[in-house]
Amino acid sequence: MAFLRLYLLAVLNLASGLIQDSKNPLNDFCRRWGHQTAQVDGKLYIDGGLVAWNPLSTNPLNYTNTWLLYSDLNSSTQDTGMPYQYANLTKNSTVPSVSGGILWADEINKCFYLYGGEFQDRPTEFSFWTYDAILNQWNETDYTTNVDSIQRASYGAGTQIPELGFGFYYGGWLNNQTSPSWSGPPVATNNLIMYDFSAGTLNNNTGPDNVGRAEGSMVYLPASDGGLLAYFGGIEDQHGNGSSVGANMSTIHIFDISSSKWYTQGAQGDVPAARRQFCAGATWADDYSSYNIYLYGGFGVDNATGFDDAYILSMPSFTWIRAWPIGDTAAEFPHGGCSANVIQRDQMLIIGGWFTTSDQCDSPNSWGQHNMNLGYNGAARSLWDKYNPEISAYFVPSPVISVVGGGPTGGATATEPSKWDNPDLAVYFTRVPTFSTRAATRTIPTPTSSLTNPKDSDKNVGAIAGGIVGGLVSLIAIPCLILFCLHHRKKAIKEEEKISSTTPPVELPTTASVHEIASPGNSHIHIRSWSSNNSTSPFPPDPYQSTTSANGSYSPYNTGYPNPAPYQPQSAYPSYTEGSLAYGYQFMSHNPNLYPLPAQSHQHEFSYPSPTSHFDGTSLPYPQTNLNSIHTCPLYPDRTSTPEAPKLENYPLSAHPTPTQYYSQPAISSNTRHSSDNCRSLNRKGRSVRGRFVDANSE
To answer: Which pLDDT value is given to residue 416?
Structure first.
């Protein structure tokens, strides 16, 4: 019987893998959730998470997303009003494909760093990865740490501070899907992980107290001397054994970066119900008189319900404001597990999510993208609107002005709560940080450099071919032109000798000007799901097609929106069941964190957040020590994940050496050392690779 079960499991895994490999992440998209995103150089990268394929009636399983995709933030489609999306980037099987992690975006160095997350299959040992957006290449990254070992956590809350080059990740679950050595119940950690982009240090710091937290949100606010972090929502594991209660949404945790101190401040107003795995982003008035955090959706603490609403938390008045729906309008599409990214301070792209009451696809023509216009200054003059890449100014919207005073550009009069829980906070919110310009620690190509854009593989290949042909033609044409001129000049001289001295000189014939050879293959082919008025897609147009002003209570998640519904109903879906994981990863009989997901994951059924621990209920998962550990790891050459992926062999190498912090550093000390005997690998051109970027000295 045991052999039969293993055999059936192997067959199921093989079948799931074959189905996954046959799918196109854009053309077959139905919905995604639990992914992580990063905004770098005008692109919004989407990594990991889970996906469901269209149609659900014949694709009832949930799969791990193994692709790295991106949305072009400098474009928007005319039909759906959302950015174009592409799936032609590299990601090989050595790079973790996880859910509930974070991508720390480093805009200065044109890369992002992958930390945390949990696997749907067997988890691997902790590893830290960098994606180089210039070279379209993943590298396993060396780091130093202040503890014996860093562990992977999932569904914590994180953000980054571009001006300082810091990334943060607070809380999250430690379980048998984050660590291969985990046993016992899940544990929500209370630690704050901080990564220094320049120094390469990945350190563990203490949280506000000893309570473990997960599935909340953290945002950065440019206040105080060095910035503030604000955390709220999610669940609290008060006993360190996986039991959870909903965090009070009126309790806001504040971390002052300059002093490394934690504070707690109470909020008032229209306080949202407790929730987990919602998405949120922050923006602020031009004069910094109000900082406004926009929240959308989330799962209920009971794991069976969800939310389809939006709130604004305005600081420093610490007032919650209900932004949508307005009045008694019913919310029809509750969901959580989404992502939110604020673009140019005025728009927030919300991507994906798992729907608790719906079995319909999530706006497949726009790949699950929905846009909030945070200043209500788009074409619709409402919260939900088409994405417009030209908008770059934030105006405080009327719902916030009616509560905190002032006007669209600032001037808030409500600048403090009814009571400060700590007088330090009153001082912090009167200050605005100033940062020195942060320089790149690598050579960044200029827009006129010869680096090609990996945005479109067909365009990339065509440009390379055109360049080669053009170069060959030029090499042939120039000598021919010189010989042509010399020949005609010699001929003219001979003819001139035959002419009598009384005959006026004859002007030499002019030669034709050199014409630039057109490079073939310059057509722009988008690797994406194309929509048009003649589209044969079974799905109706997305709700952003109309530029007509809409009532504020409408949203792309509501069928009452005055446009065709974004969700195409499906019929006769097979029933979904819950079950244990394969490979012997069994959940505890009491799992308070199991979500009612309606299908299996990549190779087996999936549940959030899927816990267990080798620590007892009272021990902290991250030991605080003074040890400095150096971690060096082998790197792997990238392989393209799809046939359309661009070939990058012709990228020129930087003429400047990459800074030493991107290399493996020998640890000449008695401290704990984590190293590999072989930490140098070759990229496609045979160059050595270390750390985050290509080693420029190894040509």
So the answer is: 98
Polymer length in residues for the chain: 699
More confident residue, 101 or 579: 101
| Strands of 78-164, DSSP E | 85-86, 99-106, 111-118, 129-132, 137-140, 143-145, 157-161
Residue 400 confidence (pLDDT) above 80: yes
| Distance separating alpha carbons of residues 475 and 477, to the nearest angstrom | 6
Distance (Å, whole) CA 366 – CA 384: 15
* Mean pLDDT of the chain, nearest integer: 74
By three-state DSSP, how is residue 639 classified?
Answer: coil
Nearest to 606 by CA among 64, 156, 241, 152: 64
- Spatial neighbors of 15 by CB under 8 A, at least 6 apart, are none
For residue 633, what are its two tokens?
Answer: 């790891």
Q: Is the pTM of this model over 0.90?
A: no
Cβ(69)–Cβ(86) under 8 Å? yes
Q: Kindly list the domain boundaries of the chain, sorted by start residue.
A: 457-481+517-525
177 three-class SS: coil
> In DSSP terms, which residues pair with 327 in a beta bridge?
none
Give a three-class secondary structure readout of 651-663: CCCCCCCCCHHHC
Task: Note the pLDDT tens digit of each residue in 378-392.
Answer: 999 999 999 999 999
Percent of all residues in the chain with a pLDDT value above 70, rounded to a whole number? 61
Q: Is the dihedral of CA 331, 333, 338, 343 positive or negative?
A: negative
| CB neighbour burial string for 1-35, b if at least 16 within 10 angstroms, e if fewer | eeeeeeeeeeeebeebeeebeebebbebbbbbbbb
Q: What is the predicted pLDDT for the residue at 671?
A: 41
Label residue 651 by pLDDT band (50, 70, 90). very low
Say if residue 61's pLDDT is above 50.
Answer: yes
The pLDDT of residue 59 is: 93
**Two tokens, residue 658:** 């990459």
**Per-residue DSSP letters for 588-619?**
PS--TT----SSB-SSSB--SS----SS-TTS
Between CA 230 and CA 235, with CA 234 as vertex, the angle to 5 degrees is 125
Q: What region, left, alpha or beta, does residue 225 occupy, with left being phi > 0 and alpha being psi -120 to 50 degrees?
A: alpha
Give pLDDT, residue 525. Answer: 30
The pLDDT tens digits of the residues spanning 275-319 come to 999 999 999 999 999 999 999 999 999 878 999 999 999 999 999
Residue 684 CB neighbour total at 10 angstroms: 16
Residues 323-367 pLDDT 10s: 999 887 877 899 999 999 999 999 999 999 999 998 899 999 999
Which residues in 27-110 belong to E strands, given as ranges? 29-33, 36-40, 43-47, 50-53, 62-64, 68-72, 85-86, 99-106
In the block, tokens 């290449």 appear at: 137
Q: Are strands 191-196 and 166-170 parallel, antiparallel or unpaired?
A: antiparallel
Half-sphere exposure of 350 (CA within 13 A, CB side): 33
Do the strands 68-72 and 43-47 form a parallel or antiparallel pair, or are they unpaired?
A: antiparallel
CB 229 within 8 A of CB 219: yes
Rg (CA), the chain: 28
Least Cα distance to 340 among 25, 89, 112, 35 occurs for 35
Structure tokens at 261: 């101190």
Alpha helices in 260-333 (DSSP H): none
My answer on whether omega of the bond before 55 falls inside 30° of 0, hence cis, is yes
